[in-house]
Amino acid sequence: MPTQEAINIKDYCVRLKYSKEALKEIFIHNVAAMRERELRGKQGDSPFMRFFGFDKIRHVAACDKHGEAQTESVFDFILRHTFHRPREIVMIGKRLYDKFNRTAEVKLPVTDNLIESIREQVNDVAWSEILHGYKQEFILGFRNDYVQQFVTNIVSNAADRSTLLRKVSREATDYLYRVGLLGSIDGKVQRFVPGSTFAFRKERVLPHSGWYVLHPTLDRELQGLGDVKKWYYQHSIIGDECSFETPDVVSWNLNRGYPVDYFRPKKIAGAQDWSGTRIQVDPLALYNGIFINGVRKNKLMRQQHERINESIQFLAVIAQLEAAKAVAGKFNKDMDFRIKTLRNQAMNLRGNTRYSSQITTTDATGLNLFTDRCFGRMVVMGLLLFLRFSIVEARNCVTSFSDKRLANPGEPETAIRFLRRSFFIYGLPGEGRLSSLDKMSILEKASDFERDCLPKWWRDYFLHSLLFNSNYNDEHRRYLREYFEFK
After folding, report:
1. pLDDT at position 243
2. What does the alpha-carbon distance between residue 230 and residue 162 come to, in Å, rounded to a whole number?
3. Does residue 60 sit in helix, strand or coil?
4. 142: how many CB neighbours lie within 10 A of its CB?
5. What secondary structure does DSSP assign to 130-186, as a single string?
6. Is the pTM of this model over 0.70?
7. Cα 19 to Cα 38: distance, rounded to the nearest angstrom
8. Is 71 helix (H, G, I), strand (E, B) or coil?
9. What is the structure's pLDDT at 453?
10. What DSSP string describes 337-369?
11. CA dihedral 140, 145, 148, 150 (to 10 degrees)
12. SS3 call for 425
């Protein structure tokens, strides 16, 4: 294994950069040299089908915008667990060949257990051989304490800039970036610098980026934290040159096998007496109709789910609108065009909803009306809990889209009655703006779905999108944290 000698002669070497296609051809060439009895697939299949028996692999944690597991080609899976060097591609292929293709079981059907075993083997080789060799070759005296600092403080393989700089020392982040183990986001693409180029250049510091990601060869460091779904960044597959999606808007797959009670508020009109609401049928049947029955098979149901997810988009636009107005007022900054644009976006998302309509059936018409109520309920709770709206202002926003802030809240009793009858929102104070205790009381009566969704949306959106809008500088960001009371 080359160590110090490799470092001593590195300035006399020509560095070769291999494209993804060139690396793929190396793998394919090695598959072509295998004997027929060592291949899983039949003649005529793609080289990857012949070697593995499958050519796509489902990720265990990263999901698309509908909450479905993301898939990637099996070669992409292998490639991102390397540093894009031919010997590493060959090494993984050799380890997989030795373990899975030289036995009599190679001709048996592919099973989920086999796929998981291959996944584990790639992770093992990436950690124990590829990363170890990389550190030996390029990084004399590797600072593993910097890796541990990241892992124990971030508890994830991705972090927004604010969280990273607050919890990890700048020496550690600069070092991990230089040695190619901490990547940044360029546009919507993840980039890791080649450690062989910058490992000894201390002037190479962490670039400005909204997000940073940890190299997949370090995934083993995170596995001690428990279930991969608890620490893996759920919006994107992590790896050099992979696309990166920020959680600008949380979109939820509402068919997760939860019981209907997961979606129902904790406090709701009781004893099957709905006369005090504008819903004249059992809400249990309505919730069941939207969230449980026929989710993926029924186009109407899919539209209803997308409509409910639009409530998060609507809240995101209102949050940007409130931020723009706050910065314009505090700093005398010209934000007129942005404010006008955001108001138009909010109007388009709000639609022409009549929350006063009574719901008397569980047919398609009734379910559509109830979907609008679910939309309105999510919006109102977001406005009250996170965006500093009073009860009256929240009512005005969902009924006529008025973002006007009122010096005197006025008509709180009428607004409270409307929110309770239309959306089952209880625990509202009699007057004025909501205190922290008021907000806690409202959230306690929310559904489990809302308690999971809304706080996560606000934290992700505020930290990762709103604050890093290009319209704002560091002074604006500090003020917005104070304005929104974000701790």
Report:
1. 92
2. 20
3. strand
4. 18
5. IIHHHHHHH-TT--HHHHHHHHHHH-SSEEEHHHHHHHS-HHHHHHHHHTTSEEEEE
6. no
7. 28
8. strand
9. 84
10. HHHHHHHHHHHHHH-S--TT--B---SHHHHHH
11. -90
12. coil
Task: Tally the residues of the chain.
Answer: 487
- Judge whether 461 and 314 are in contact, CB under 8 Å: no
Which residues have CB under 8 Å from 84's CB, separation 6+? 17, 18, 20, 23, 240
The answer to whether the CB of 443 falls within 8 A of the CB of 434 is no
What span, in angstroms and rounded, lies between the C-alpha atoms of 67 and 219? Answer: 22
Give CA–CA dist 308/286, Å, rounded: 14
Place of tokens 């930290």: 463
Rounded to whole angstroms, the Cα distance separating 223 from 233 reads: 13
Q: Give per-10-residue mean pLDDT for the chain (487 aa).
A: 49 68 95 92 88 93 75 96 95 94 83 93 94 81 90 89 87 92 91 74 76 94 79 91 74 60 77 67 83 56 70 89 94 90 82 78 87 90 93 90 80 87 84 84 89 85 76 89 85
Q: Can you give the three-state secondary structure of 166-181, one letter per residue?
A: HHCCHHHHHHHHHCCC
d(CA 110, CA 105): 10
Task: Label residues 259-290 b or e (16+ Cβ within 10 Å = b).
Answer: ebebbbbebbbeeeebeebbbebebeebbbbb
Query: Cα Rg for the chain, rounded, in angstroms?
Result: 27
Q: Which two tokens stand for residue 375?
A: 């939309």
DSSP H helical segments within 272-335, as ranges?
283-291, 299-331
Residue of 275, 311, 304 lying closest to 288 (CA atoms): 304
Residue type, 288: N
pLDDT at 222: 87
Tell me which amino acid residue 48 is.
F
The amino acid that residue 275 corresponds to is S
Please say whether the beta carbons of 161 and 235 come within 8 A. no
Backbone angles phi, psi at 71, to 5 degrees: -120, 155
CA quadruple 6, 9, 13, 17: dihedral, nearest 10: 30
- The predicted pLDDT at position 2 comes to 43
Domain assignments of the chain as residue spans, ordered by start: 4-138, 144-231, 260-483
Structure tokens at 349: 């998302």
Angstrom CA distances, 291 to 78, 270, 282, 295, 342, stand at 37, 21, 15, 7, 30
Q: What DSSP character marks residue 15?
A: P
